[in-house]
Amino acid sequence: xxxxxxxxxxxxxxxxxxxxxxxxFEPLELDQKLDIMSKVEGLDGIGIEYPQQGLTDxxxxxxxxxxxxxxxxxDVSVEDYSDRKWRHGALATNEEKVWKENIxxxxxxxxxxKHIPDAKTMIWPAHDGFDxxxxxxxxxxxxxxxxxxxxxxxxxxxxxxxxxxxxxxxRQRQYISNMGKMMMLFSDVGAENITGCVDTGHALMAQESLxxxxxxxxxxxxxxxxxxxxxxxDADPDLIFGTLAFWxxxxxxxxxxxxxxxxxxxxxxxxxxxxxIKSLNLAxxxxxxxxxxxxxxxEYSDEIENNLEGYHFADNIDLITDLLF
Length: 325
Hints:
CATH superfamily: Divalent-metal-dependent TIM barrel enzymes
Shape: globular
Distance between the termini: 24 Å
Radius of gyration: 20 Å
CATH topology: TIM Barrel
């Protein structure tokens, strides 16, 4: 089974940030983005945000639009973080009006997602956290978040909700900061249709083993979405996947191939100082290269697994380097 590879539609953006708020590139129209992405070898779909300026609210028309470029609509991310009203959190806030508004938005995104085959509604609790001691009531914030997810999940049990964890940014500390805290959330929410998004950049920043996070979530039926980027384990600049953490990425892809992960592999990159189109092509190419390497390792999985059973690390790396290099 070939993996399904998508890219966030924002990956052909202007890359505006606090130092260069106007961005590093001129904006592209939707059809320009779709035309560029349709020519990327190995790319199957495009992840979107909901609501997304410039995109129709009709899922059937959106599927038709993307399909005319030979692309599918992938996972749907709730856009509840770019407006100042979310500054105290969208899920954990005790501002009742804001909290209810976000829950309503998430439900609308679920209703939209339901019409997209194989798609999940992804929620990144970006502002749900804190920056200073004595700034928030931790227990109240957590309870608000659990109550929000319970109500959102119960809205439609047929739509899967993906939670994206991150240790910091934009907050200095975020409530769902690592895979373990996310599993605690799942336990408290108790819904069957809540799963996890492993963003490789976030997991590396949290000092996690990518393969371990994938394996443990999958073992509990909670592996929902993969987001792909890279970093130096200290921040989340969304560098091109596969360019830095080679062994972590390779081991993760071995496990993803071993379990035939059926979800989307969504590229989430920022490339302000290089050609954004070439960067996108490179990212997709590297994802497919990791998939090919993982397929090669799967052919020798019996030997690899036997070495794991005996803790024979040197034998495994000796085998893998001979197979790949």
